[in-house]
Automatic annotation (TrEMBL):
Keywords: Glycoprotein, Hydrolase, Iron, Signal, Zinc. Residues 339-552 form the Calcineurin-like phosphoesterase domain. The lineage of its organism: Eukaryota, Viridiplantae, Streptophyta, Embryophyta, Tracheophyta. Belongs to the metallophosphoesterase superfamily. Purple acid phosphatase family. InterPro entries: Calcineurin-like_PHP, Fn3_PAP, Metallo-depent_PP-like, MPP_PAP, PAPs_C, Purple_acid_Pase-like_N. It comes from Gossypium anomalum. Residues 577-636 form the Purple acid phosphatase C-terminal domain. Its cofactor is Zn(2+); Fe cation. This is Purple acid phosphatase. It catalyses: a phosphate monoester + H2O = an alcohol + phosphate. It comes from the Eukaryota. Homodimer. Its EC number is 3.1.3.2. Residues 62-188 form the Purple acid phosphatase Fn3-like domain. Residues 1-30 form the signal peptide.
Length: 661
């Protein structure tokens, strides 16, 4: 049977969307209401922008104000859009375009214009660039169909270009351009923005990556930084970007393309190690979980660094970002309080209620806001795949980096590669779908730094104090004998468990255990278990984290489908079996569980949330699952053990011995 093309799938999604809207209108609902857990479809893909036709009406108008945004130095601002339409309809909608002159993009044979020829295009010139967001005209005024007037508010972020607003009739599937607004822009559109920190390749190195509109021929990028209150130094930054012909498939290569600007990365080296010491906390660790213990004073010896992003222009003047700060990492093996947050599949959402919010990534903002609320108690974050769900609409990456800026500018924001970052047909991904919308890993690899030897192969290791992390790339071959398999074994084997007792494995797809049905009606990814569980057991991995399935689940310490340790809330003694945790409820539409009751599953929750690990010292670890809705703990356990417990012989996890004396 011939498979559906990418565009055919888009049309299918469009038809589903139209049917959904019709049902809403048929039930007497005047305004479009966006609710529910979402359908998993990128909202911008619902717009058949390549089929748009011009139907400009002389009595229709769209006016946007203020004309200049960010006049007080901010990188986001609110815009009011006033609409007047002589022939209003329930399915009229307002699109936000950036750059503003979207009407002028034409396909010229042999050029690299973003407008690619298509049998579906209705006229020339074509609108061949998707908007960056949209709202229905009746979103805030149920009387729009009667009055033809509406006032909408959009929150825009600085994305290096100007903006315009367009009124369309005909719904998302048959758009007709009715009116176009005036142009608005940010006061400094090229400003350096949205810094994201990452661990470097050594423990005393932090990388800072940011986005700007300045190429290196216009301005020299750098970071000015130093210990808070002391003299500052400057470190140079490298500059990367990517182009439309780097994309592998639609829509990234067609209507979803938008210039990403320039991505700069600077390496801040020779940092002094920070420490957070909590004496006597571990003596009442288990009681803390039952709120029977009040921990004593936590002593913080933190080397806090301040930094700001800079560009030196060719005329000798400077452009600066606002100031930020971060705390340096502890020395590997350092005995101090260390706190790690892990989640997957968060995506982005819009605080102004446009397209995505409440129907595509319904939990995304809650997760973001809970992390910001608790940021002073977080040392490092791992977002383990399915980062933005941009799915080939490049504008969404700016919006995501803006959403997580307060987190990523303060603590290392480490990412893993998921199917929505990497998978594209005939691109070398292990899975041959087009979940990335044609991005084929290029965007994620450029927008975020990770300490991989080759960022096109998104596997890497990193240390944080007493933790050793092995980050796999589930979108490349991980089977026994593969290049990645060899990396995984080398990474696990390299952990010095006396210094770093907490060994963590991370991948996006569930290469271990999950009670959600997979395509072959088994659990998780069976080939993953067959290939990797021998390594997890041999090297005594404490916890394996996965995303991809949009819920939360925790297993017992398990090996070959059998629980190797009794108990649910506390584990001590010999390390035997690995605890598998699915933490894919970061924000995207939720997944359910299969009907089969599995003996190794201890806790399930189809809700949005994240995990926090707290290492108090080399012997005590606290695991907490928190819901994004309220930040409260809904599942937890502790581990307590000594170094000899890691060394102890277990089934398929013994060092060879000899009878010789």
């Amino acid at each position: 049977m011939r498979s559906l093309s990418f565009l055919s799938m888009e049309y299918l999604f469009l038809l589903m969307s139209i049917l959904s809207q019709c049902l809403k209108f048929g039930s007497g609902t005047a305004a479009v209401v966006h609710v529910g857990n979402g359908d998993g479809v990128q909202p911008l893909s619902k717009i058949a922008i390549h089929k748009a036709v011009y139907a400009l009406h002389e009595n229709a108008s769209v006016k946007a104000h203020p004309l200049v945004l960010g006049t007080k130095g901010g990188d986001s601002d609110w815009v009011t859009v006033e609409i007047e339409c002589p022939k209003p309809s329930e399915d009229d909608w307002i699109a936000v375009f950036s750059p503003a002159n979207f009407r002028l993009k034409e396909f010229i044979n042999g050029s690299s214009s973003i407008c690619q020829p298509s049998d579906d295009m209705e006229q020339f010139p074509h609108i061949c660039s998707a908007p960056i967001k949209y709202k229905y005209a009746n979103d805030s005024d149920a009387d729009y169909k009667k009055t033809g007037k509406s006032s909408l508010k959009f929150q825009l972020i600085n994305q290096r270009e100007d903006f315009s607003f367009a009124l369309f009739s005909g719904g998302l599937s048959d758009p007709k351009l009715v009116a176009i607004s005036n142009v608005i822009s940010f006061a400094n559109p090229k400003a350096p923005l949205y810094p994201r920190l990452s661990q470097g390749k050594s423990w005393n190195e932090i990388t800072v990556t940011w986005t700007s509109g300045y190429n290196v021929i216009e301005a020299v990028p750098f970071v000015e930084w130093g210990m808070k209150g002391e003299s500052q130094t400057r470190s140079p930054a490298g500059t990367l970007t990517f182009h439309q012909n780097d994309m592998c498939a639609p829509p990234a290569r067609t209507v979803g393309w938008r210039d990403p600007g320039f991505i700069h990365t600077s390496f801040l080296k020779d940092l002094w190690p920070s420490s957070v010491y909590a004496p006597q906390l571990t003596s009442c660790l288990r009681e803390m979980m039952n709120e029977q213990c009040v921990p004593n004073t936590v002593f913080i010896f933190a080397f806090r660094y301040t930094y700001k992003l800079g560009h030196k222009l060719v005329d000798g003047s400077y452009v600066w970002s606002k100031s930020y700060s971060f705390k340096s990492s502890p020395y590997p093996g350092q005995d101090s309080l260390q706190r790690v947050v892990i989640f997957g599949d968060m995506g982005k959402a819009e605080r102004d209620g446009s397209n995505e919010y409440s129907n595509y990534q319904p939990g995304s903002l809650n997760t973001t806001d809970q992390l910001i609320k608790d940021l002073k108690n977080i040392d490092i974050v791992f977002h383990i795949g399915d980062i933005t769900y941009a799915n080939g609409y490049i504008s969404q990456w700016d919006q995501f980096t803006s959403q997580v800026e307060r987190i990523a500018s303060t603590v290392p924001y480490m990412i893993a590669s998921g199917n929505h970052e990497r998978d594209a047909p005939n691109s070398g991904s292990f899975y041959d779908g087009n979940d990335s919308g044609g991005e084929c890993g290029v965007v994620a690899e450029t927008m975020f730094y990770v300490p991989a030897e080759n960022r096109a192969k998104f596997w890497y290791s990193t240390d944080y104090g007493m933790f050793h992390f092995c980050i796999a790339d589930s979108e490349h071959d991980w089977r026994e004998g593969s290049e990645q398999y060899k990396f995984i074994e080398k990474c696990l084997a390299s952990a010095d468990r006396r210094k770093q007792p907490w060994l963590i494995f991370v991948a996006h797809r569930v290469l271990g255990y999950s009670s959600s049905y997979w395509k072959d009606a088994s659990f998780g990814e069976p080939m993953g278990r067959e290939s990797l569980q021998g390594l997890w057991q041999k090297y005594k991995v404490d916890i394996a984290f996965f995303g991809h399935i949009h819920n939360y689940e925790r297993t017992c310490p398990v090996y070959q489908g059998q629980c190797m340790h009794v108990g649910k809330s506390h584990y001590s003694g010999t390390v035997n079996g690995t605890i598998h945790v699915v933490v894919g409820g970061g924000g995207s539409h939720l997944s359910g569980f299969g009907p089969t009751l599995t003996s190794w599953s201890l806790y399930k929750d189809s809700d949005f949330g994240f995990v926090k690990l707290t290492a108090y010292n080399h012997s005590s670890l606290l695991f907490e699952y928190k819901k994004s809705s309220d930040g409260n703990v809904y599942d937890s356990f502790t581990i307590s053990r000594d170094y000899r417990d890691v060394l102890a012989c277990v089934h398929d996890g013994c060092e060879p011995t000899t009878l010789g004396s």
